[in-house]
Amino acid sequence: MATDSTLTREQLSTLFLNTELGGNTRHLDHFAYAKEGTSTYSFGLVQFDVGGNPQARRFLRDNGFTNGDIELLSQQGGLSTQQLAALDAKLQAIPQANIDQLTNAKLDSAIGRVDEAIAKVRATNPAAADAIVANPELQLAMADYDNQFGSMGPQFINYLSGNAEKLQGGTIQAGDPPTRADVQTFVDATKYGIQSPAAVTSRDERFDTAMSQLGIAQTHAPSHGSPTTPGAQAGSGVLVNGAKGDEVQAMQQKLADLGYTGKDGAPLVADGHFGPGTLQAVQQFQRDHQLTVDGKAGNGTLGALDAASQQRQQQAEPAAPAAAPSMATPGHADNPRYQQVVEKLEALEQQRSQGGLSPLFHDRNQLENAAGQVAYESKVVGMSQVDTVVARPDGQGVFAVQGQLGDPAAHRTYIDLAQAVGQDLPSSTRQSEALNAEQTQRQAQEQAQAQQPMSR
Q1: In the chain, what percentage of residues exceed pLDDT 70?
Q2: Is residue 96 located within the same domain as residue 171?
Q3: 342 and 305 share one domain
Q4: Whole-angstrom distance, CA of residue 303 vs CA of residue 222
Q5: How confident is the model at residue 95, as a pLDDT?
Q6: What is the pLDDT of residues 48-69, one digit of tens each?
Q7: Cβ distance 342 to 367 under 8 Å?
Q8: Which of 155, 182, 312, 318 gets the most CB atoms within 10 Å of its CB?
Q9: Are 122 and 92 within one domain?
């Protein structure tokens, strides 16, 4: 039972759905390969790594997977579309209660591990431990770090306790008190952070999304780069007079964009050097935003600067239009038909795999594109649903069928696969919506004609 950590299963579920799955619930019941480090195929909300997690292998074995299946999933990529489709089907056949039990056990374990980490910090720095307890964002960052890297080791604990730690990217030290930004600084300074900066940035952005969904106030996260900056207070993320580098340049540009000037009203140049002009601009910004006027750009000042910059951009730029819903969007009029076709095509691929035939699609995107065209073409010929999808012997196309195969009264239509996979889902959705509008207009005209009095 956690005594310090305030995390809940619900918070962790929201966090991992975003950081591990990018917010896409469709990935929950599909195997995925991250193509990073030593990871193998993974599944579920917390992305259980099959090759690296004995518990995950035992769970799959207890729920219908063979040793051969598990061996395939324990490799680093290489599975074909049809192999994955067959394994996905087995995963989707596992009762949801079993999946939930495994997931909840992992979430409870994650809460316990954060609690243990806080206790270790408390042993040497009670004030830092209290700061962690009071900061749910930091606790979630610790849980995410633990889930991604497998543990919160001694260096990580010592770092949160306020000690300087030497990593591959340099010597770093957490602030007092520690924040989520310090966890990000630690990740940036690891070998993984240095070799995969784009992946680190992407996960950081997905973490931000989770915090927004949870309604948790976010602290300033430092830009990804060198963990130490000449002229900055060591490891604290504070920029002071004399600092140089990309972080200083980014701050200068934001200040200039907001209209702040340098010494004696001279334009503020974003040259990456924190000099007298930048100092004056920072101090004026702090006055304008009721901050401590010390000329130091720490978490509070940088966070306020980010917020002011975002507000300026929102006022200056029209809001980007929301992406139009597609057939794949729940609630869309064609979603039931589209999902029906996706299931038929997945089953068809599995049958071909079991029969030793080559797959019809190279990847998931091609299958979903084809499903959009099959759904559209079936509407064109007047089908109300798609009961079966069968492939031509040469694999060049498929037949969508409503009714029993072999029944002369069954409705059927042929779809060329080369054309279907080349038509993206938004295009198929627009075609289908245009067809809906045309049919609605025709029905309205027919009703109007039927209501007109007959001429004598």
Answers
A1: 92
A2: yes
A3: no
A4: 10
A5: 94
A6: 899 988 999 999 999 999 999 9
A7: yes
A8: 182
A9: yes
